Recover the amino acids of this structure.
C-alpha cells in the first residue's frame, strides 16, 4: 500500500519504524519513499531534514544533520521531531563518512563520532555540553597491494560499533581495536587493542568474498559475517553471527538471537532492535545493501530456520540517488 506525498513531519510514522528510506535526490518534488519493513507499507514524504543537509543515520535511531551552508549541526529524532543542537563544523563533512553515538543520549558522557571513510581521521564532540569538535588522526598501518607499482596508502577504519561508551573495530583478522575517550588535559580518543581469534566459520564451501558488520545489541558486541560464493556479490551463501565474550576475548557463535532483529545496510551500518515490539521476524538478519545499485530489494535471513527471503517494495519506485538507508527506532 502506498500513500501520497504529504507534509514532512515523520512523527505520524513513529509506529512504523524501522523504515528503509529511498532518497531520490533533487527530482521535481524532492521526495523520499519510506518503506516500513514490518507491514510492507510505503509512504512518499518530503522530509525537510533531508533537504540542503548532510544526514548520517546512526544505529541508535537518531540522525546527525549538518546544514550544507551554515555547517550548523544537530541530532534529530525522526520519531518525535526533537532536535539536539551540536556545535557547528569547521569544514564540510567528508564525502563518505559514518556517524556513531558512544552511548544512549541520556548518558552525560555520550559522544558523537564522525568516522571518515576515506582517510584515517575521526571527528567527535559531546552531545551534552560540547562546545567544539575535536579532530584526531590515527594509525592502523599501511595498505599494500602486492605487485602494484603504486606506493602504500594509509589504512582507515570502515567497520566500527559503539558499546557502553567505547568504539570497537576490527584492526586485523585476529585483533579487535578499541577507542576510549580520555581527557588529559585535552580531549582525545585513546586507541588500544586485544587479541581475539577470528571465528571458525561453519560452512565448508569455498567462499572467496565476504562482508563483516560490527554492532551493539543489549550492551553487547556482535559480529555478523555474510559470505558470497566465489567473487560474486549477487547472492549471499551464508550468514553467521557471533557475540564477543570479553572475559575469554573470543567470538562465540550465536544462532538464536531471541527477540532481536539485526538491520544491515551500506557503509557498514548495523543496528539492532526488538523484533516483537516493532513487528519484525524474531532472530532474523535484514540485509538492505545492493552492491550493484540496480535493485531496491532487501533480504531477510532466518538464522534458526536457515531460510532466506527476498523482499521488495510493493510498487515500482525509481532507483534512489543514494543507496537505501535505515531509520531505526530511537534508543532513549
Amino acid at each position: 500500500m502506498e500513500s501520497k506525498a504529504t507534509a514532512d513531519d515523520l512523527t505520524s510514522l513513529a509506529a512504523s519504524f524501522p523504515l528503509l528510506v529511498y532518497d531520490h535526490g533533487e527530482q521535481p518534488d524532492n521526495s523520499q519513499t519510506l518503506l516500513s519493513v514490518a507491514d510492507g507499507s510505503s509512504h512518499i514524504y518530503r522530509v525537510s531534514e533531508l533537504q540542503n543537509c548532510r544526514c548520517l543515520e546512526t544505529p541508535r535511531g537518531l540522525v546527525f544533520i549538518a546544514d550544507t551552508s551554515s555547517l550548523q549541526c544537530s541530532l534529530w529524532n525522526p520519531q518525535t521531531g526533537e532536535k539536539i543542537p551540536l556545535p557547528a563544523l569547521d569544514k564540510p563533512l567528508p564525502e563518505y563518512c559514518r556517524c556513531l553515538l558512544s552511548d544512549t543520549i541520556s548518558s552525560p558522557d555520550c559522544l558523537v563520532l564522525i568516522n571518515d571513510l576515506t582517510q584515517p581521521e575521526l571527528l567527535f564532540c559531546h552531545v551534552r555540553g560540547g562546545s567544539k569538535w575535536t579532530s584526531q588522526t590515527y594509525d592502523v598501518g599501511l595498505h599494500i597491494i602486492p605487485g602494484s607499482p603504486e606506493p602504500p596508502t594509509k589504512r582507515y577504519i570502515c567497520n566500527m560499533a559503539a558499546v557502553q561508551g567505547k568504539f570497537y573495530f576490527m584492526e586485523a583478522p585476529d585483533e579487535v581495536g578499541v577507542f576510549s575517550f580520555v581527557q588529559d588535559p585535552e580531549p582525545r580518543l585513546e586507541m588500544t587493542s586485544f587479541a581475539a581469534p577470528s571465528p571458525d566459520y561453519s560452512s565448508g564451501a569455498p567462499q572467496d568474498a565476504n562482508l563483516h558488520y560490527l554492532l551493539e545489541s543489549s550492551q553487547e558486541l556482535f559480529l555478523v559475517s555474510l559470505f558470497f560464493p566465489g567473487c560474486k556479490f549477487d547472492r549471499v551463501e551464508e550468514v553467521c553471527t557471533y557475540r564477543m565474550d570479553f572475559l575469554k576475548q573470543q567470538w562465540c557463535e550465536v544462532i538464536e538471537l531471541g527477540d532481536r532483529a539485526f538491520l544491515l545496510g551500506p557503509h557498514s551500518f548495523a543496528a539492532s532492535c526488538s523484533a516483537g515490539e516493532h513487528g519484525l521476524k524474531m532472530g532474523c538478519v535484514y540485509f538492505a545493501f545492493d552492491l550493484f545499485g540496480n535493485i531496491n530489494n532487501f533480504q531477510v535471513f532466518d538464522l534458526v530456520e536457515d531460510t532466506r527471503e527476498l523482499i521488495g517494495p510493493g510498487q515500482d519506485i525509481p532507483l534512489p540517488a543514494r543507496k537505501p538507508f535505515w531509520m531505526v527506532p530511537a534508543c532513549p
